[in-house]
TrEMBL record:
<dbReference type="InterPro" id="IPR022687">
    <property type="entry name" value="HTH_DTXR"/>
</dbReference>
<dbReference type="GO" id="GO:0003700">
    <property type="term" value="F:DNA-binding transcription factor activity"/>
</dbReference>
<dbReference type="Pfam" id="PF01325">
    <property type="entry name" value="Fe_dep_repress"/>
</dbReference>
<dbReference type="GO" id="GO:0046914">
    <property type="term" value="F:transition metal ion binding"/>
</dbReference>
<protein>
    <submittedName>
        <fullName>Iron (Metal) dependent repressor, DtxR family</fullName>
    </submittedName>
</protein>
<dbReference type="GO" id="GO:0005737">
    <property type="term" value="C:cytoplasm"/>
</dbReference>
<dbReference type="InterPro" id="IPR050536">
    <property type="entry name" value="DtxR_MntR_Metal-Reg"/>
</dbReference>
<feature type="domain" description="HTH dtxR-type">
    <location>
        <begin position="7"/>
        <end position="69"/>
    </location>
</feature>
<dbReference type="GO" id="GO:0046983">
    <property type="term" value="F:protein dimerization activity"/>
</dbReference>
<dbReference type="InterPro" id="IPR022689">
    <property type="entry name" value="Iron_dep_repressor"/>
</dbReference>
<comment type="subunit">
    <text>Homodimer.</text>
</comment>
<dbReference type="GO" id="GO:0003677">
    <property type="term" value="F:DNA binding"/>
</dbReference>
<dbReference type="InterPro" id="IPR036390">
    <property type="entry name" value="WH_DNA-bd_sf"/>
</dbReference>
<dbReference type="InterPro" id="IPR036421">
    <property type="entry name" value="Fe_dep_repressor_sf"/>
</dbReference>
<dbReference type="InterPro" id="IPR036388">
    <property type="entry name" value="WH-like_DNA-bd_sf"/>
</dbReference>
């Protein structure tokens, strides 16, 4: 199975949004809901959901939307943790506000640099001491 670091920025964004919605609402999300969340047209959302389905990250069914597979949930949870760690780092270490930290963290998590997230985590642990 392909790892999260091989995902495009858009794929990571879709997985993260879907993960957050499905964690609080239901098990399935419609294509129109995804399009609205990501501010894209429905055909664009459909194309991306099909691409994620081809990678085994979601289960997509025309007219019924999609749900995340176990692998999709696993990868999305890693992305979510990276986003949370990065936001915390930007706020605590660099004194950024919530809005700026969110925007910048969303860009940082698209980097294919696992060592960066290890260093951020370590810096936050040292910060607590």
């Amino acid at each position: 199975m392909e790892e999260k670091n091989e995902l495009t920025t858009a794929e990571k964004t879709y997985l993260l949004k879907m993960y957050r919605v499905l964690a609080t609402d239901s098990k399935r999300i419609s294509t129109s809901q995804m399009a609205k969340l990501l501010e894209v047209k429905a055909p664009s959302a459909t194309d991306m959901l099909k691409r994620l389905a081809a990678r085994g990250l979601v289960s997509y069914s025309k007219y019924y939307g999609c749900e995340m597979t176990e692998e999709g949930i696993r990868i999305a949870s890693v992305i979510s943790r990276q986003l949370t760690l990065t936001r915390k780092f930007l706020i605590q270490k660099l004194d950024m506000n919530e809005e700026d930290s969110q925007r910048i963290a969303e860009k940082i998590i698209t980097l294919n640099e696992p060592v960066l997230f290890k260093k951020i985590k370590r810096a936050l642990i040292l910060y607590k001491r």
